[in-house]
Specification:
Elements: H1 4-12, H2 20-71, H3 74-77, E1 80-82, E2 88-92, E3 103-109, E4 115-118, E5 133-139, E6 144-149, H4 156-165, E7 171-177, E8 180-186, E9 195-201, E10 221-225, E11 230-234, E12 237-241, E13 245-250, E14 253-257, E15 266-270, H5 277-299, H6 315-325, E16 346-348, E17 354-356, H7 358-367, H8 369-376, H9 387-399, H10 405-470
Antiparallel strand pairs: 1-15, 2-14, 3-11, 3-15, 4-8, 4-10, 5-6, 5-9, 7-8, 11-12, 13-14, 16-17
């Protein structure tokens, strides 16, 4: 006969032992999975938004920087030129474009420097000793530089190296030819950059003793060049400069004087840009549309939440698109017939992309090529005439400014990323505690079932004994 106790134990499977470990594991898993899935789903979306916002900001940076680089190139700023580079050559300086060109230049005289040569010593080399003592250079303004000559620099090369290390404005070199070895000293160009040399020699018969020069040639020292300023005439006005490289005669233009040619006029000018501004604007529209289409995809509403763009509803990106869409109506120039991109045929579509009316642009370029060029790429950007690259830089800076919608969105999603990580960490702690709690409950149950099983065994033995006795 089957007892009631036996039926209960059999139903609980106590006879073969309950796998409490697997039971607890399954219960914890069933509790954890829906909560973890909800957090990780939101975490994945948030990570995608962080990546998309960073990509949008980076794309805007790349677009603005590329535009600035292109417009600053010689293809759109022009190049400086001289019709006789053997007399004077020119190059552009950074910061702006030259004004007042073309200009007429005459080079009356080159700037020169004081050059003094010592007498050649037959049989000497650069390492030959010249004697100890002191060597003093005195500039025209009275500044002195004194070099002590001892065992460490007692040679032609040693003295030359010591002079060059002082940065006194005077340089020295050792020259060895068929007649022997000598020292050549050279000052800076310009009439105000003369110098003299005085020496104090320990040995009056040494080479050093003969290196002094006070303005007059001697048996051991000869001046081969006197200091003088460069003299030029620029558009009929006479100027003098201490150097043959002149940066201050025409703004943003360096003039290098190569030889004097009194009576010969050199024309300095700026060549017109070789690349077409129309081609640049077409490329600008194409590149801009690539950026805007990517933003449109990222912010699309889709048919439902599963197909919506990852940045749908993000205010920072809406603000970014709004500011970009306004560039066609933003004044690039305060004067002239053409002041905005819209005036020359570039308009904003409803989706934020741009359309270029090539016929309208061609008409504008034909009617006022200089006005359109100065509007898009002024020689010097100003508040009222910023030009296209400066406008894009300004828009970029406004979009990415601190406390702006884009920055605030990035900060918000960064904070959410930390919060989701914390939620997962908290879930780990809670599930560990829950698992420990369940393990305790089922361990106690298993203990009680084991005791019940022992009692069952005892009762079954007693019943069997009773049955045997009755028989």
């Amino acid at each position: 006969m089957t007892s009631v106790g036996s039926s209960i134990i059999s139903a609980l499977n106590a006879g073969s032992g309950i796998d409490t470990s697997a039971l607890v594991s399954n219960l914890v898993k069933a509790t954890r999975e829906p909560k973890e899935t909800a957090i990780t789903s939101r975490q994945t979306l948030n990570t995608s938004r962080i990546s998309a916002l960073a990509s949008a900001a980076s794309s805007l940076d790349t677009f603005a920087d590329a535009l600035t680089e292109v417009l600053s190139g010689t293809a759109y700023t022009g190049t400086a030129s001289s019709n006789d580079a053997s007399i004077a050559s020119v190059s552009l300086l950074s910061g702006g474009s030259p004004t007042g060109l073309p200009a007429q230049l005459t080079v009356e005289q080159l700037a020169t420097a004081r050059v003094i040569s010592s007498g050649a010593t037959s049989g000497a080399t650069s390492s030959t000793a010249i004697g100890t003592g002191s060597f003093t250079i005195t500039s025209a303004s009275g500044e002195t530089t004194t070099i002590t000559i001892d065992s460490t620099n007692n040679s032609y090369a040693g003295l030359a190296s010591a002079i060059n290390a002082t940065n006194s404005g005077v340089t020295a070199r050792v020259v060895t030819d068929a007649t022997g070895t000598r020292l050549v000293f050279k000052g800076e160009t310009g009439a105000d950059n003369d110098f003299s040399i005085s020496v104090t020699a320990d040995d009056s018969g040494s080479v050093l003793a003969g290196l002094g020069w006070d303005g007059a040639n001697s048996g051991t020292m000869t001046s081969t060049s006197a200091p003088q300023n460069a003299k030029i005439t620029l558009d009929g006005v006479e100027y003098e400069f201490a150097s043959n490289s002149i940066d201050g005669a025409i703004p943003y233009l360096r003039i290098d004087l190569n030889k004097a040619a009194p009576g010969t006029t050199v024309t300095l000018s700026m060549s017109q840009p070789t690349a077409g501004l129309s081609d640049l604007l077409k490329e600008f529209v194409d590149a801009y549309n690539t950026l805007m289409k990517a933003l449109n995809t990222a912010t699309s509403t889709g048919t439902d939440s599963s197909t919506a763009g990852v940045l749908n509803g993000v205010s920072g990106v809406r603000d970014m698109k709004r500011q970009l869409a306004a560039i066609t109506s933003t004044p690039l120039s305060a004067t002239g017939a053409y002041r905005t991109l819209a005036d020359i045929g570039i308009t904003t579509n409803r989706d934020g992309t741009l359309t270029l009316d090539t016929a309208r642009l061609a008409t504008a370029m034909e009617n006022d090529p200089e006005g359109v060029t100065n509007m898009v790429n002024p020689k010097v950007s100003t508040t009222v005439n910023p030009g296209l690259s400066t406008l894009m830089d300004t828009v970029r800076d406004n979009i990415q400014k601190d406390n702006g919608p884009l920055k605030l969105a990035q900060e918000r999603y960064a904070a959410l990323a930390k919060d989701f990580t914390k939620q997962l960490e908290d879930l780990d702690v809670k599930m560990a505690s829950y698992e420990e709690h369940l393990t305790g409950i089922y361990s106690a149950m298993e203990t009680r079932l084991s005791a019940l099983k022992a009692t069952q065994s005892y009762l079954e033995q007693q019943i069997e004994m009773w049955n045997n006795s009755s028989n």
